[in-house]
Write a structure and sequence with these properties.
The protein is of the alpha+beta class and 371 residues long. It is built from seven helices and 14 strands. The structure holds zinc ion (ZN) (3 copies).
């Protein structure tokens, strides 16, 4: 398959950039990334000096095939950092064959586990060490194994791995937020075609998440109900934007979709955190996700996409600014096929132009034939 490969991707997964130079002796104080706060809109940005590149590095390379050996294939475990966690047969050894899912640190993390998170002023500006975690979840040992073709059982295993990693990272009270996300396809930010997702834990609450929590808090203050529960109730009344539902989960194209075929997947039972699911709910989540991704693949010809899990911040948060968070926030997946490009107007205004009404997208996804 011909892919347009960029020599340097300014996005987060850059595992392809050659072998890790061991013995470089990175000391905790040699922090190679830094968080900086925009003083106007209080948005944090991660500046990764480790990837400090010359302007020419941003010029797209000539399109090329996928060259070389895939570090995520079974048998190439030596090409990744040591695994943090794996789903593997009991008689197999760590960093060897015999696994189904592996979690490894990102070779080129945007944030680093070591160090303190001291906040510092630089004149009027705020900055912070780039402390956090950046992990890669290799979802399958097979090089070609698209998500929508996988069994419910294997999806459950993946969803459980996300839970385990989240629980583990939540033990580190420096890490206020853990985001699980997936970039599928070059346009969606992936630099390797082998199916993987990523986990980044940050020492701050990301702006997008904070906006959702603040919004749900205001709605709760006003109506004493969860806005997401109300959305589910309302969408069930209309029906026109629902893609799929089972007993515990629902997928829908949101009323104010930013992108064509944007999909939200929500638990029907109110819960703020991804860790709160029962075993049965986990199975139904896997089923709902599988059917939704199958429909998306059938409708749009296996599109490139991003997805992310938006759930409550670290529950052991020392200074929780939202004491009623468990009542008003409601975790969910957001799934965004990469069909349009965000351009000047969107960057300039924060207003998205979506050429596909969500009602049409949902009808299309409901009616598409798939096996
Ligand atoms: Zn591979
Ligand atoms: Zn709710
Ligand atoms: Zn969200």
């Amino acid at each position: 398959m011909k892919l347009r490969v960029y020599r340097f991707s300014p996005r987060v997964c850059v595992l392809t950039r050659g072998p890790l130079k061991r013995g470089v002796n990175r000391k905790p104080e040699d922090h190679v990334s830094e968080l900086r706060k925009d003083p106007v809109i209080n948005r944090w940005v991660i500046i990764t000096t480790e990837r400090g590149k010359r302007p020419t590095d941003f010029v797209p390379a000539e399109p090329q095939g996928e060259a070389g050996i895939c570090p995520f294939d079974e048998g190439n475990e030596h090409m990744t950092p040591h695994e943090i966690h794996a789903v593997r047969s009991p008689d197999s050894l760590a960093d060897r064959r015999g696994w189904k899912i592996r979690v490894v640190p990102n070779k080129y993390p945007v944030l680093h586990v070591e160090g303190s998170i001291d906040r510092e002023g630089a004149g009027m500006f705020d900055k912070m060490n780039g402390v956090g975690a950046h992990e890669v979840v290799i979802e399958t040992p097979l090089h070609y194994d698209p998500f929508h073709t996988r069994s419910i059982e294997s999806i459950v295993e993946l969803l459980e791995v996300y839970q385990r990693r989240m629980a583990d990272l939540h033990r580190d009270i420096r890490l206020l937020y853990v985001l699980v996300f997936k970039n599928h396809g070059v346009r969606a930010g992936a630099t390797l075609t082998h199916e993987h997702s990523q986990i980044i834990a940050t020492p701050i609450i990301p702006k997008r998440v904070g906006e959702e929590i603040n919004g749900s808090f205001e709605y709760f203050n006003y109506k004493s109900r969860c806005v997401f529960c109300d959305i589910i109730h309302e969408e069930k009344r209309f029906g026109s934007r629902i893609v799929y539902e089972n007993a515990s989960f629902i997928t829908l194209c949101p009323f104010a979709s930013r992108f064509p075929f944007e999909i939200w997947l929500l638990p029907k039972r109110h819960m703020a955190g991804y860790m709160m699911m029962t075993r049965q709910e986990m199975i139904e989540l896997a089923e709902c996700l599988q059917v939704t991704m199958r429909r998306l693949a059938a409708a749009l010809g296996e599109p490139q996409y991003n997805w992310m899990i938006h759930a409550e911040p670290n529950p052991s948060l020392a200074r929780n600014p939202w004491p009623d968070l468990k009542e008003h926030y409601h975790w969910h997946f957001e799934i965004m096929p990469k069909l349009t490009r965000v351009a000047g107007f969107e960057w300039g205004t924060g207003i998205y132009i979506n050429p596909t009404p969500p009602e049409e997208a949902a009808a299309f996804l409901r009616e598409v034939e798939f096996d």
